Amino acid sequence: MQMLKDGVLKLAGSVIAIGAFDGVHRGHQAVIKQAVEKSRDNQVPSVVYTFDPPPRNYFKGVQILTPIQEKVSRIAKLGVDYIIVASFDEWYATRPPEDFICELSKLNPVEVTVGADFHFGKNREGDVNYLEKYFHINITPPVYCKSGKLISSTRIRQLISDGDLQQSYSLLGL
User: What is the reported pTM?
Assistant: First the structure.
């Protein structure tokens, strides 16, 4: 597994999983595993494209669940070939969606895997429908815990805040 900055990697083909992946919880793991499986089926490298810090931390100051080194370690355990870490800063946050499309195009994706709520670009102008104009998109369905509640980073942060570490660890897949 190789970790690279955005803009460095160029591939003849790939399958890309994109997301903040803060926590690399069971829902995130489903997105990444789906991309890894599809990359093996297509005999191309798997790529995870993620951000540091996560956009919600940058814009709203929310607690980061996994520092970048831990996030990369958890993602690597899922069998990914490459991890691209984009520095999410003021410059990155103001880029138009077209810039992100150009960035992904350098990886020649056979497929891009995301969650249904994925947005990108300045003011979150890009979304799944926008991505579909350029790439074959695979939307990973949401993952729910045994009680039927959605697994999300927001929910995990709330569980940690409430002191329910056992439940939060379960959702993180630890």
Answer: 0.92
Q: What is the DSSP string of 1-69?
A: -EEEETTT---SSEEEEES--TT--HHHHHHHHHHHHHHHHHTS-EEEEEEES-HHHHHH-PPPSS-HH
Average model confidence (pLDDT) for the chain?
93
> With respect to CATH, is domain 2-142 assigned 3.40.720.10?
no
pLDDT at 174 over 80: no
108: its two tokens: 């020649």
| Residues 14, 108 contacting (CB under 8 angstroms) | yes
- 17 pLDDT more than 80: yes
